[in-house]
Design goal:
It is built from ten helices and nine strands. It has about 300 residues and is of the alpha/beta class. It has two domains: about 1-85, Helicase, Ruva Protein, domain 3 (Orthogonal Bundle), CATH 1.10.8; about 105-299, Rossmann fold, CATH 3.40.50. The strands form two sheets. Strands 5-4-3-6-7-9-8 form a seven-stranded mixed beta sheet, with helices on both faces. The chain is elongated and about 70 Å long.
Amino acid sequence: MSANPSRARSNERGATVIHEDQTLGDAVRAAARLLADEQARGDAEILIAHAMGLSRAGLFAHADHLLTEAEAARCLELIEARERGEPVAYLLGEREFWSLRLQVTPDVLIPRHETELLVEQALACLPLPALGLRIADLGTGSGAVALAIASERPGSEVWALDASRPALKVAESNAQRLAIGNVRFLHSDWFAALPEGIRFDAVVSNPPYVAEDDAHLERGDLRFEPRMALTPGGDGLDSIRRIIHAAPDYLKPGAFLLFEHGFDQGDAVRELLATEGFIDVETRQDDEDRDRVSLGRWR
């Protein structure tokens, strides 16, 4: 970064930002002014604490610490990146999901709280101890869903599939760091690379489901996330259609197929499942009472 952190810096609005000999407390306040959105204060605290190698509690405890030139540069670099819109999770390199601290990079979708509903519903379909059960997670990305299920059902075998080799590397790294050993990773376009004859007790997926013309793709964090993990094009349902059509060849009788999808796609996904011959088709709502996960059982 070419900026000289030893002098006060200003953005176009004239807001003073981070510089040498500024206290940590003042740096956080200046960073929040620079970011200037509803999450500004929280983002500023998280990013500056990360730059300083502190917890948020440690940040408050050392509020009077005077920044060195190198410390100011580290803090400023992260805050300016956030001002450009880069997601906090990518700047930190991690995100917590299901109490698992996961590495995330721009090669993978950022795990979100609403996806934990997919894990909850999958676990409800996999009663303990789940010994010998086999589960597939299609489009695993960071491995969030696969690793959460595997950690809760250690007697099962979870297959984590993704068409992106860089994403699989992130998922494998997360499994190794978390010492979760009952996951197998496979480079595969949905079911395509699976061994012939393999069958699963459950298949879960958080596939790309955003419609191609959805304006949200050009806003916020979505601008920086891998487009192939967000939208399959068209109406957003193409990936779900493909998976539902192919799934019967990979499911045991009575096995479950579960999807995360958009809040306005529940009716369409239930119809697709029922048309393909799935029974006990249902949709579950998220914390905001929006359709979020649909599932069906293979007859």
